[in-house]
Design the sequence.
């Protein structure tokens, strides 16, 4: 499995220029933001990369008909599927790590509570990213990259609209909204995290099932 | 005694209108088995079933004496596969492909891979897959398939579309590979000329069924074709006819004993046959 994960990371690395270009546009939009928001947005960007990277590796795999070859390798079906999940998780971990570092940096001069809040918000965002990943991967295995891309865009658009509507309803920033929801009860963040991990595991088994049935 | 590296027994797979029906054959160590058949005969399906890429509906496949389903990934560790097209991502260089595969196979031999690249004049760096010609891509596929020291090589139309020089180079390499009893090749190909050069046995698949599994020399030296007119056909005993194809000017009858047929039908022309002719007679003619 290390081999196919390495293959996807290599694909991501070769596309790094596009990611950096997108990041440059993203950074321009952050100039007028507060330091906390910038750290948050950087984390969000990396989460977005975590959601999108498995998607475009699927497209490259499809173009090369890589799957035909992958199935001839000494790998089990679940290992081939797991590598895509791990790829997304790896980028999320990087997002959390980098965003967390930035949270600590911008935290200087502000209160510890603010930095803590920032880090908690990042973790929340990564959980949302994991949720999207858990939805998108079975869809990709079932419908292939072309159809699945449209479905994913629709899902993200719906989630964003929902979030946008909630934010304007409360007249606050996105960070505050996430914190507001998670702060309703001390167990809520853990429940939220547990639920997403549970969905993620279910999604993985669903993807393995779909993938194993291919070609029948 | 020859050890069978691959044993396919009663392999069955049903797809809507097509059925791979009770396919049985074996690949002995030290041999190259040519796997021929028209498009859609079920050759690729058979190879995919051997690799356990798709589930089978019946029969069994034993590779190195092990069931290919129960020990799928262990079995694939010792199989090298070359497909009819290159499945490596276009943006990778041969060197990068080596790095990926070295993390997939336990027995990957980087030194061997580099020496094969060098033998095929393939650059390790500096040239991406998309910049390679079809011949170069197939050579890359062969190098990747051999570098983990497989015992069994599965080739799916690996020489199609290659020029005669590259094909010859590849055939030479394949013959080196089966130099001992520990290695074998199942070679699916339309290019019967290649198989006539290197194969030891021929398995002919027609409409999902094995028509015959024979030694190549038996086919080329013992089998023959009786060339006659439509009127002469009634004179030929049914037991002498394996397949028959009637044309506007000539009727060709495939017989499994050329010498006996030549003695029996002295006034008719009885010639040697070729794999291509056998394929055509079974494929387009009437099987008896």
Sequence:
């Amino acid at each position: 499995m290390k081999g196919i994960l390495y293959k996807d990371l290599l694909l991501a690395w070769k596309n790094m220029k596009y990611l950096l270009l997108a990041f440059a546009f993203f950074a321009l939009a952050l100039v007028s933001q507060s330091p906390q928001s910038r750290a948050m947005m950087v984390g969000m960007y990396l989460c977005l990369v975590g959601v999108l990277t498995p998607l475009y590796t699927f497209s490259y795999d499809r173009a090369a008909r890589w799957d035909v070859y992958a199935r001839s390798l000494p790998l089990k079906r679940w290992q081939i599927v797991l590598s895509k999940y791990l790829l997304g998780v790896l980028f999320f971990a990087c997002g959390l790590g980098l965003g967390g570092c930035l949270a600590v940096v911008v935290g200087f001069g502000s209160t510890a509570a603010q930095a803590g809040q920032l880090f908690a918000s990042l973790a929340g965002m990564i959980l949302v990213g994991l949720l999207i990943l858990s939805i998108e991967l079975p869809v990709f295995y079932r419908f292939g990259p072309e159809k699945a891309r449209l479905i994913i865009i629709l899902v993200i658009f719906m989630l964003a609209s929902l979030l946008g509507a909630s934010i304007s309803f409360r007249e606050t920033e996105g960070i505050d909204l996430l914190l507001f929801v998670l702060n309703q009860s001390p167990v809520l963040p853990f429940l939220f995290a547990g639920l997403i991990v549970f969905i993620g595991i279910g999604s993985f088994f669903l993807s393995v099932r779909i993938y194993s049935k291919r070609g029948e | 005694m020859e050890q069978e590296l691959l044993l396919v027994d009663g392999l069955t797979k049903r797809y809507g209108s097509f059925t791979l029906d009770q396919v049985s054959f074996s690949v002995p160590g030290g041999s190259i088995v040519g796997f021929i058949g028209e498009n859609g005969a079920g050759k690729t399906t058979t190879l995919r079933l051997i690799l356990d890429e798709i589930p089978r509906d019946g029969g069994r496949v034993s590779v190195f004496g092990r069931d290919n389903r129960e020990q799928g990934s262990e079995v694939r560790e010792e199989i090298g596969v070359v497909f009819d097209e290159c499945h490596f991502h276009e943006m990778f260089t041969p060197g990068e492909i080596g790095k990926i595969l070295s993390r997939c196979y336990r027995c990957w031999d980087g030194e061997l891979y580099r020496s094969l690249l060098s033998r095929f004049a393939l650059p390790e760096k500096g040239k991406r897959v998309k910049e390679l010609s079809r011949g170069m891509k197939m050579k890359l596929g062969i190098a990747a398939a051999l570098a983990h020291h497989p015992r069994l090589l599965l080739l799916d139309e690996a020489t199609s579309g290659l020029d005669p020089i590259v094909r010859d180079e590849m055939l030479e390499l394949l013959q080196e590979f089966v130099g001992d009893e520990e290695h074998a090749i199942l070679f699916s190909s339309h290019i019967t000329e290649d198989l006539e050069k290197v194969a030891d046995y021929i398995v002919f698949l027609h409409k999902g069924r094995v028509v015959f599994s024979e030694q190549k020399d038996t086919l080329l030296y013992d089998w023959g074709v009786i060339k006659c007119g439509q009127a002469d056909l009634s004179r030929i005993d049914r037991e002498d006819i394996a397949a028959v194809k009637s044309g506007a000017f000539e009727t060709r009858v495939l017989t499994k004993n050329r010498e006996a047929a030549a003695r029996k039908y002295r006034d008719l022309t009885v010639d040697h046959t070729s794999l291509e002719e056998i394929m055509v007679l079974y494929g387009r003619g009437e099987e008896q």
